[in-house]
Amino acid sequence: MVEIVVLVVVAAGLCGWLYNVLGRRTGHEQSFSKPAEVSSAVAAQPNAALLIPATEEKKREEVVQPEAWDGIRRIVSRDAHFDLTVFIEGAKDAYGKILEAFWQNDRKKLVDMVSKEVLEAFELVMGKREADGDHLENRLVNIDKAMVQKAGVDGDNAIITVSYDAWISTMLRNKEGVMIAGSSTDALPTHDVWTFSRNIKQEPKTSWLLVETLAAS
């Protein structure tokens, strides 16, 4: 029963390769930056070209909470390589890879993706699962939304909190292979809040690491 409860919290609740997908420009994306200042002469002239296109504005609203924009700007001012679009896509990728590694008790992969504290919390669940002979057959079906809730800089560390709305198929088998929890056909809605952190001063740039997991309220 403890196994099932903790599993739901984690499922409901990166080090070299992760830097390649989180917060790094590839040359094909438009970088997120502060808008250039407009001279008074230009500002006095109403010009539709100066306005943010409605589609772009809507796209931004879908990936960042309004209260997180100041934090995003602080990160951009300290890290010229940061790209919001790349980060969001990388955060989605990280979500699936970290969950998959946790479900498969793959400590070698987890050590490059999560902080020491998160790994220790995962270890408690994985160790119990192995001791009981249980085996997870979970599957991430879809991520409906990944949105930045909070962002900022603490010392030399960029910190970004992402909320996920996803669907996960969960199935737990005991050592005899009998399914003791979950379903082989149904997926359940999952709401997680994960916080990632990366040192933005150290060169070469360090990886983004998962430093906290919470179940969204």
From TrEMBL:
Pfam families reported in the protein's UniProt record: Tim44
GO cellular component: membrane
Protein name listed in UniProt: Putative lipid-binding transport protein (Tim44 family)
Keyword Transit peptide: yes
Keyword check for Cytoplasm: no
Organism: Zymomonas mobilis
Source organism, top-level taxon: Bacteria
UniProt KW keywords: Membrane, Transit peptide
Subcellular location: Membrane
Main localization of the protein described in the UniProt heading: membrane
